[in-house]
């Protein structure tokens, strides 16, 4: 007859499952580096290392008015950016919520909605005087479209696949810039779509505009991705384009796809496997599914459900509210970790208010510890990705520092996330890992998009 396990006993099992040792991290970094290199050499690799056709760093002297539309995940955002030079800018913006139907129905309808929102924004800006246009004048528009696209020019891009829960029809395999132009024309907007960019690339350029030490950008939001600047001669898969080898080009890594389908480099728990298999894209975005905001709450919920099934948690209570996929938002992990009270009153509130269940103190301590394990693993896996780029580019050679522009709610709002990334980098590189520091990035999908639209103008 087994004695009843305490919550602390249960926690030990999950500690083992979710903990990454420095040694394991270094092995992941090595395979990550090989994957990055493969993506630069050959087309259609799992991590596609997409050439962005953004050439070199901005000077900081880019100027003028630009519009940006950002289709990135949870919201649609429309911005008016005024670049003032000397690394300075002003921005005004509006946000529009996307419905689940808009994400899944016809793609052209989705772009029509984007154009409609832009029209509302432009009309309002013209009416209140924040924007003025001479007759016949059009404004350059940067379209921040944060899904993997193949580009052969800056103002064109074929959607490879939707990520982050999107699935709009008739869009994968199509030129999304052209689709958006069709919608812009339908609403007779006074704009010229000059650049199609990814938020990660935008973040890279915007970070560098204000801080020339920034060499890498990482997004930790609904999804997870990174960008950096690569020497064209190293991007051997585009050798035939005749671009001088010593130029630099932004690379949108799309690293969320690392280890997709193969599943041989990353340590996945059975909860990760359930998240993957029940997702709308099984097998894909394997790295992202362990890290990004869309999934962390769900991983925790699956552990809780397992313990409900085993009769460990909430015996005799109705737990149906916890049994729906994705009801446990990653923001709850942040709240649980930052609960300042001994009684963990915040956690009482989350479970009673949102899920109608009562918790004991031991259970609440367990939930908080579990959130920490899942959040910490996400941060440390991110360190592995950053370390792979840093190692590849030799950014720590010669005692240099390397700043990383980071953005997204997970990075900005999850308590201790950045510290855990930094800790992970020290575990990988030792003391010199301290030279890699993440910073809250400037708004890449707005400001970065505007800067790239400006850089594009001067290059032509
Ligand atoms: P997006 O990537 O969609 O442009 P965000 O950067 O805001 O937008 O990321 C949204 C994701 O961040 C969602 O998955 C959400 O669960 C998560 N999130 C929102 N608030 C928090 C928070 N306070 N702590 C941790 N994660 C959060």
UniProtKB/TrEMBL annotation:
For this chain, one GO molecular function annotation is: fructokinase activity
Hexokinase N-terminal domain residues: 11-209
What's a single GO BP term from this record?
Answer: glycolytic process
Transferase keyword on record: yes
Question: Pathway listed for it?
Answer: Carbohydrate metabolism; hexose metabolism; Carbohydrate degradation; glycolysis; D-glyceraldehyde 3-phosphate and glycerone phosphate from D-glucose: step 1/4
Keywords of the record, alphabetical order, are: ATP-binding, Glycolysis, Kinase, Nucleotide-binding, Transferase
A cellular-component GO term for this protein: cytosol
Q: Could you confirm whether the keyword Glycoprotein appears in this record?
A: no
Q: Which InterPro entries match?
A: ATPase_NBD, Hexokinase, Hexokinase_BS, Hexokinase_C, Hexokinase_N
Q: What EC number(s) does this enzyme carry?
A: 2.7.1.-
Q: What range(s) does the Hexokinase C-terminal domain occupy? A: 215-455
Q: Which family does it belong to?
A: Belongs to the hexokinase family.
Put simply, this protein is called: Phosphotransferase
* Species of the source: Laccaria amethystina LaAM-08-1
| Lineage per the UniProt record | Eukaryota, Fungi, Dikarya, Basidiomycota, Agaricomycotina
